[in-house]
Amino acid sequence: MLRKHFRPLKNEDVPFVVNAWIKNYAVANRNIKIKGGVDNHRALILACLNKYNTLICCNEDDQDQIFGFINCFQYDDVFVTNYIYTKEIFKRLGVATALYKELKVNDELLRLSTHNTNSFQMFCEKKDLRHWYNPHLIFKELL
Which option is the CATH number for 4-139: 3.40.630.30, 3.40.30.10, 3.40.190.10, 3.30.565.10? Predict the structure, then answer.
């Protein structure tokens, strides 16, 4: 069992978070060419990290060992997940579930995601989390 600790994003986490987000999303959406979309996506991710809440799930004894993260925000009565990520070797060990629990998201809130992957869809189905995909909401406060 993983001994999880939660903390906010630190500056030294940014390269890992950006690279994990880009690579994971590109693999999950094979029609995205990594070389062609990286610069634009990197700028969008950096804007999200600067503007929205990023919660890191890490090793309790070594907080530099990141298990996963979530970047999210609340907009009126909507909880928006920009991206949730779990490192491959820590999948199915409760990291994503623990991130949502740590955020104490009100079950009454409508849930949206701005990035959609098969693993996120399966997670939501398994946890009976109803969510809707709306990629445009990410720009609501960024533009």
Answer: 3.40.630.30
Q: What tokens appear for 136 in the block?
A: 């445009």
Burial 20-29 (b: 16+ CB within 10 A, else e): bbbebbbeee
122-142 pLDDT, tens digit per residue, is: 777 777 777 777 777 777 666
Tens of pLDDT, residue by residue over 16-48, are 999 999 887 766 565 555 566 667 788 889 999
- pTM, two decimal places: 0.86
Region of residue 124 (left: phi > 0; alpha: psi -120 to 50; beta: else): alpha
Residue ranges per structural domain of the chain: 4-139
- Residue 32 tokens read as 């995205």
CA distance 84 to 126: 15
